[in-house]
Amino acid sequence: MSAALERRFEAARAVVDDAARMALSMRPPSGGPIAVQKSAQDWLTETDGAVEAFISRRMQALFPEDGFQGEEGGRARDGSLRWVVDPIDGTSNYARGRNRWCVSLGLLEGDRPVAGVIVAPALRETYTALAGHGAYLNGEKITASTVTDPRSAMIEMGWSSRVPKPVFMEKIGAVLDLGAMPRSGGSGALALTDVACGRLDGYIEIVINLWDVAAALVILSEAGARVSPFLRDGGIEGPGTILATAPGIADALSASVGIPLG
Asked: Could you say which residues form the signal peptide (predicted)?
């Protein structure tokens, strides 16, 4: 299986790179959002469907026995190995012509993340990981932050209209009580890769979907970050909560926000 996974990993890198170039060429100009609004701050662009269809076709042609799941089309094919794609993560940024968005493709073997590729073409960044082989940014190995004091930590928290305001305020208040600096960047996948490479010391999102995290989970693991058991706790079939953190502040942050780690 190792050789089979390596073939898939190399193929995924090429396919996502092509898909990211497509998305970049279709990006709207700066200004008000050019997209359909599904709900509060939840957007859908023409590019989302085009990129997902492109990746689905390419992966089916290369590995017809594999399953496939996308944000827009749902679980289209089943298999012991399953590709999970978020065609544009950070759509609110993308729809306004901003740079902080990415194309994300993860590979699951059952309920185990085994490979991930995340390309942010406007930032010229590619994150990759294959289980057991390390995590990389533009070909250079990455590791989670060495921060040990929450008072010097930078923590991002994702926002969703599906989270009641009191719950959101409670969690962000807990981050502030630790003395950490809060951030919000509009892309869950890129926030998780920021934790993996040490640009952030933690990321919290109360309600997040599998396609947002599938590629990032293996990148985080290979980079030495600690992560809550998202897949075990229901993330395979529906939305779940995720906490990803640098190991040196993991216990303090987990206790403060009330999200257990794996």
From this structure: none
Indicate where the chain has its CATH 3.30.540.10 domain(s). Answer: 2-141
Annotated ligand binding at 86? The verdict is yes
Tell me which CATH code domain 150-257 carries.
3.40.190.80
Burial readout 65-104 (b: 16 or more C-beta within 10 A, e: otherwise) = ebbbbbbbeeeebeeebbbbbbbbbbbbbbbbebebbbbb
pLDDT category at 33 given cuts 50, 70, 90 is low
pLDDT for 113-138, tens place per residue? 999 999 999 999 999 999 999 999 99
The DSSP bridge pattern shows strands 112-120 and 125-130 to be antiparallel
CATH of domain 2-141: 3.30.540.10
What are the structure tokens assigned to 14, written together? 């090429």
pLDDT digits 0-9 by tens, 203-249: 999 999 999 999 999 999 999 999 999 999 989 988 999 999 999 99
Nearest-10 Cα torsion for 172, 208, 219, 252: 30
Q: Which residues in the chain are classed under CATH 3.40.190.80?
A: 150-257
**212 carries a ligand binding annotation:** yes
Ligand-binding annotation for 194, yes or no, is no
